[in-house]
Automatic annotation (TrEMBL):
Species of provenance: Gracilibacillus salitolerans
Metal-binding is among the record's keywords: yes
Annotated protein name in UniProt: 7-cyano-7-deazaguanine synthase
EC number: 6.3.4.20
Subunit architecture: Homodimer.
Record's catalysed reaction(s): 7-carboxy-7-carbaguanine + NH4(+) + 2 ATP = 7-cyano-7-carbaguanine + 2 AMP + 2 diphosphate + 2 H(+)
InterPro entries found in the cross-reference section: QueC (IPR018317), Rossmann-like_a/b/a_fold (IPR014729)
Gene field: queC
Amino acid sequence: MDKNKRAVVVFSGGQDSTTCLFWALEKFDHVELVTFDYNQRHQQEIEVAKEIAVEQGLKHHILDMSLLNQLAPNALTRDDIEVADGEDGELPNTFVPGRNLLFLSFATILAKQIDAKHIITGVCETDFSGYPDCRDIFIKSLNVTLNLSMDEDFVVHTPLMWLNKAETWEFADQLEAFDYIREKTLTCYNGVRGTGCGECPACHLRQNGLDTYLAKRNGVNN
Ligand SMILES: [Zn+2]
């Protein structure tokens, strides 16, 4: 078993992590998925992740992270808190403190268990939402810490780190997963799959990126 060919993808069933999944499938021989259940606003997120895992024939680990909600209830985990963008340099209220720190740590512990060297996450600094744990410097720092903690040489990959949303759609297209991701994934804060509710900040971001990419693609074809 060559652990250099084995990978774990942090997977939410959304556009970004599904794009990462297809990237990982091109790059590695053996890919497993890990999804964190932290009482997301929409339990449907877990169902979508499960369905995609089954369709792609991949082993899927679902880990209970409800302690995160116990510590820090926020707009992603509570129906009674409305999703809002941050104002004047404040963090948006969708920020869950420590989320990526915990998720990547648990994903790496899982990687150790299944003898995988590579961990893939869809975090991105380009459309910077204000989440400090999506920054490249944080991921690199955590990668070093994880390796020191287990005396290993894990590599945390962030294929979307420097892509904007339009470029992420283009990337999905290059991976021949554009239609699949467009139809199957769930990004919307209101739990509407594919094109989404069209109203929430996640839908606006996704749709703007899609429109930009489609304009470019159609421009090239004409
Ligand atoms: Zn929406």
